[in-house]
Amino acid sequence: MKTSRRMFIKTGAMAIAGTAVMGRTAFAAKKQKGIIGLQLYSIRSEMSKDPLGSLKQVAAMGYVYVEHASYTNRKFYGYPAPEFRKILDDLGLKMISGHTVMGRQHWDASRNDFSDSWKYTVDDAGVLGQKYVVSPSMDESMRKTYDDFKRYMDIYNKCGELCRKQGMKFGYHNHDFEFSEKLNNEKLFDIMMKSIDPNLVVIQLDIGNMYNGGAVALDVVKQYPGRFENIHVKDEIKATGGEQQYESCIIGEGIVDARKVIKLATKIGGAQVYIIEQESYQGKPPMECVKQDLEIMKKWGY
Fold first, then answer.
1. How far apart are the first and last CA of the chain?
2. For residues 290 and 38, is the Cβ–Cβ distance under 8 A?
């Protein structure tokens, strides 16, 4: 097909103009690498006193995604699920995930089924539009023997199936005992990782908690590539009091090397969701801390 010189120049000029526009659009702002959220336990005192006002502040900081840590009697921070969903929607916030402990009482062995209370937990998470229903710990009685622990891992898989029916995933959030406690001479964390179905259950890796259990975040991410789509971004410093050796701090200021860990988790760990959590503040206001945490994450390109 023949093209006149005039048409060639016109077409070329349009292409150059288009490239310029695309260039301005592409480089106007750095594209985030994933979803950044805030675990509301970071501002637990503020949320207990004034949940609505606290959420307004969180939204004003630039957070879009949040993760709850309060669900009692089918209410989130005192609000029924539909009402709390409206509050979030009005503020432009999304509940990506939520923490509710799944305990022994939530599985009825005689019926081989979950309790109604746990089914309500999953239902209400669906109302909020959650992607993850996360149990943030495990009762000590569930990890006394190897066989008991393995049985609960099977129940975790069943919970993954229950959540999948509503388009969600079940998750487990580590603390420190998973790395310090052993059954049959094997770390609990390693037993978990080989027992759960990764298509049904997500390990929400808390990259800070594990240090009190003697583990190092970079090593764990390398050991289990592709297994951590949802992580808790946290940093740790030497504790100023209490029984534990380390306490959390503003990310980037501690021993975790959080930037390097989340970069590796993004590259080989499958990380897509980054939930900021800070539980200790070294004398600073919690709201100020979580604002700084978000600014640091954005500075790192997330």
1. 47
2. yes
List phi, psi (to 5°) of 89: -60, -45
At 132, phi and psi to the nearest 5? -130, 135
DSSP for 36-73 reads EEEEGGGGHHHHHH-HHHHHHHHHHHT--EEEE--EET
The chain-wide mean pLDDT, for the chain, equals: 91
CA–CA dist 1, 8 (Å, integer): 12
Identify which of 196, 262, 211 has the alpha carbon closest to the alpha carbon of residue 232. 262
pTM as predicted: 0.89
Phi, psi of 144 (to 5 degrees): -80, -40
Q: What is the DSSP string of 258-300?
A: HHHHHHHHHHTS---EEEE-----TTS-HHHHHHHHHHHHHHT
SS3 state at 111: coil
What one-letter code names the amino acid at 34? G
Handedness of CA 138, 141, 143, 146 (dihedral sign): negative
Nearest to 88 by CA among 60, 120, 55: 55
What angle in degrees, to the nearest 10, is found between the helix axes of 81-91 and 116-128? 20
CA 26-32-37 angle, to 5 degrees, is 155
Residue 175, classified by CB atoms within 10 Å of its CB into exposed (0-12), middle (13-18) or buried (19+), is middle
Mean pLDDT of 10-25: 42
Supply 126's token pair: 């669906």
Q: What is the pLDDT of residue 32?
A: 58
